[in-house]
């Protein structure tokens, strides 16, 4: 069968809503796009452990510490599912990790902002995990089987993450004047960076059209951002918090919240490595990788010994 016929058959499978599995034929570009997106997603989960991890030792109670520990541990697990899912496309774990550590691969812009107070932990759970759920519920219907299955599991955990964040937000918003001030300050600092998580406007998104044609994405960056705003403005108002956007207005006709323009210079600046915490995040990841060398070596040695034992027994 010619490459063109294969590509046509592949597109028909996608259009019929079939799932593509690792051994199926796929266009090289589909494979490349998925490796790019899934490995960046994995990196985001792993780098995403750092802003909240920073507060584990300073959690205000044992209950909060246990919740935060298990949340951060979940993010590590998400990274592992996603690295494994990326390997099903023929990418080597070593190569994708090298791309992160050498600064060639991107990870979500949101993790380049500092966590200045405990209220930031609450707001990350509510807004950042809230944004992740909206994006990942869509990706759970993606055309690539291993990615969509990883997303189903990840979304279940993210939904717990969001609930614990919102519970904390509601508690602080109903707390002392100092707590109310802290939580509003955290919302003021995280709102706009969270809107940036969804990526550039549709007309400035070079990858969207191809990803939508291939059923990897089923909604555009702007559509997802709008769903996020509609849901979270209501949640903010329900607990008496303000959204830091003077242009925010409900449109009765469209039944959507209209909102102001994102500072795209800030977004691209962060994506290019010049955000407030980019250098610090990469330094921490590189050190962690270096410190984990002996663990990787021990695991390899263990696997080698197991293989030898099996060979002897057979
Ligand atoms: N940050 O053509 P576009 C979590 C890049 S972690 C940085 O629209 P696409 C959590 C984009 O990569 C989960 N870069 O791209 C963890 C592209 O550059 P390249 C985070 C961004 O792929 C711990 C260029 O801009 N979620 O939940 O169609 C604690 C043009 O963009 C960003 C994911 O990773 C950004 N925000 O759409 C708490 C979701 N936006 O690669 C929570 C998976 C865009 O061509 N990824 N860029 O050089 C996606 O859904 C999509 O890849 C994106 C971008 C929406 C991010």
Automatic annotation (TrEMBL):
Alphabetical list of Pfam families matching this protein: PaaA_PaaC (PF05138)
Entry coiled-coil feature ranges: none
Highest taxon, organism lineage: Bacteria
SUPFAM superfamilies, sorted: Ferritin-like
UniProt region (Disordered), positions on chain: 1-22
A cellular-component GO term for this protein: cytosol
Biological process (GO), any one: phenylacetate catabolic process
Keywords: Oxidoreductase
InterPro entries reported for this sequence: Aromatic_CoA_ox/epox, Ferritin-like, Ferritin-like_SF, PaaA, PaaA_PaaC
EC assignment: 1.14.13.149
GO molecular function: phenylacetyl-CoA 1,2-epoxidase activity
Protein name: 1,2-phenylacetyl-CoA epoxidase subunit A
Organism field: Fodinibius halophilus
Chain's gene name: paaA
């Amino acid at each position: 069968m010619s490459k063109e016929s294969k590509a046509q058959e592949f597109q028909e499978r996608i259009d019929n809503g079939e799932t593509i599995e690792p051994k199926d034929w796929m266009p090289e570009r589909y494979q490349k796009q998925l490796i790019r997106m899934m490995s960046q997603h994995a990196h985001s989960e792993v780098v995403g452990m750092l802003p909240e991890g920073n507060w584990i030792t300073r959690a205000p109670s044992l209950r909060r510490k246990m919740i935060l520990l298990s949340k951060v541990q979940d993010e590590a697990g998400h990274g592992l599912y996603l690295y494994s899912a990326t390997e099903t496309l023929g990418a080597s774990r070593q190569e994708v990790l090298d791309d992160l550590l050498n600064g060639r691969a991107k990870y979500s812009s949101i993790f380049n902002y500092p966590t200045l107070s405990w209220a930031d932990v609450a707001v990350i759970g509510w807004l950042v995990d809230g944004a992740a759920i909206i994006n990942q519920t869509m990706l759970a219907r993606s055309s690539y089987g291993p990615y969509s299955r990883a997303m189903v599991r990840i979304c279940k955990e993210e939904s717990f993450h969001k609930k614990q964040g919102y519970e904390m937000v509601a508690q602080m918003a109903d707390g002392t004047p100092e707590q109310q001030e802290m939580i509003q300050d955290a919302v003021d600092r995280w709102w706009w960076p969270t809107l940036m998580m969804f990526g550039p406007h549709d007309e400035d998104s070079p990858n969207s059209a191809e990803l939508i044609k291939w059923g990897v994405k089923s909604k555009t960056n702007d559509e997802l951002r709008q769903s996020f705003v509609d849901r979270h403005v209501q949640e903010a108002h329900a607990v008496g918090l303000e959204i830091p956007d003077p242009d925010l207005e409900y449109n009765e006709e469209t039944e959507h919240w209209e909102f102001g323009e994102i500072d795209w210079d800030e977004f691209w600046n962060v994506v290019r490595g010049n955000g407030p915490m980019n250098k610090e995040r990469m330094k921490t990841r590189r050190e962690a990788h270096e410190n984990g060398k002996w663990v990787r070596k021990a695991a390899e040695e263990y696997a080698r010994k197991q293989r030898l034992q099996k060979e002897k027994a057979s």
